[in-house]
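Q: Can someone sanity-check these two? First one:
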Amino acid sequence: MIFIIKLNNRDFQWEEGMTVEDIMKIKKFSYSRIIVKVNDKHIEQEDYAKTVVNDGDDVKMIHLLAGG
């Protein structure tokens, strides 16, 4: 059975026990400044490794850009 979450409004295959940190590694997100929300709840960087993502969750990973 395949499970899906939404990652930045796109379907992303999910595996049981997957954390925010796991998703970032799979997607190769290594930005120094990124905002992460799971179901509109802000996740702090120190919580990435322990925040488990569940089937059907809506995950947003937004890279912050600086400009002038």
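And here is the second, same format, sequence then tokens:
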Amino acid sequence: MKKSIHPKYRTVIFHDTSVDEYFVVGSTLTTDRTITWKDGKEYPYMTLDTSSASHPFYTGKQRVATTEGRVADFSRRFGSMIGKK
């Protein structure tokens, strides 16, 4: 394996700001920000807008689209006018 071409793998704290949830994950992310964690050690810190704690797919709050498609929608709206002159 070549030296000095691979990023450093380390423990990083990710913070989902939308639900104030923290995740401790191994990552190669490079950041200048750090945070002191519950164990007293200082770790790299990165904020997130969305994670599995706040994304609708993972929280079960996802809406399901029930439309049939554009052609069916057009036929429903204007189908009565098609045969008229």
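A (reply): Looked at the second one. The first helix runs from residue 56 to 59. The first strand starts at residue 10 and ends at 16.
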